[in-house]
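[09:14] KT: can someone run the structure on this one? pasting the chain below
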Amino acid sequence: MNFELMASMMCADYGHLADEVKELEDGGIDSFHIDIMDGRYVSNFAMSLYDMAYIASATKKPLDVHLMLEHPNNNIHLFLGRLRPGDTVYIHPEAEYHPSTTLQKIIDAGMIPGLAINPGTSVETIYEMLRIVDKVLVMAVNPGNAAQLYLPYVGEKINKLLTIKNEMNIKVYWDGACSADKIRTYAPMGMDGFVLGTTLLFGKKQTYAETISNIRNLEF
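[09:31] RB: done, structure tokens below
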């Protein structure tokens, strides 16, 4: 069964970031998920423009950049200028007056446009924008912090997105509280990928290679 695995780099050991990137890459991670937080759209600060730029320089793997910023359109050129064509950039529709304008900037820069949707954001409110994005990142927790508990009511929304993903030509990704049982449940249903954080990947006794191999070999 094919699904992507992304490493949530806000959970990495920043005292050894170069080693973390290399070990994750060698271990078979598909991409590096970069959470940028401004302390306004969410109450936390996490990762920076320069963290993102360093990781981009340290790997040939794609970056998966999740902008938790208020009005990202104002500064998105700073991020786009440090990424590579083919990297993904997600914005939150509630963070922008005219999110389609920001998405068009992402497209024009040669990046993959994505929407990140909070637990309280309905499919209906983003339906039209699904026609201009390639990816939807579904938050299974409220954005802003790692190590949160899964919010079960998100499951119904995921089911809706998986039902229309082929019609809209989108890929659907899971972010937050991603455990093995969630992968076992949703990968067979058509979920395209999972962001891995402290629940399954970071802070474990196993190597990253062992953990990633175990995930890929889950019984479905």
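[09:33] KT: thanks! The two ends are 9 Å apart (CA to CA).
[09:34] RB: yep, looked fine to me
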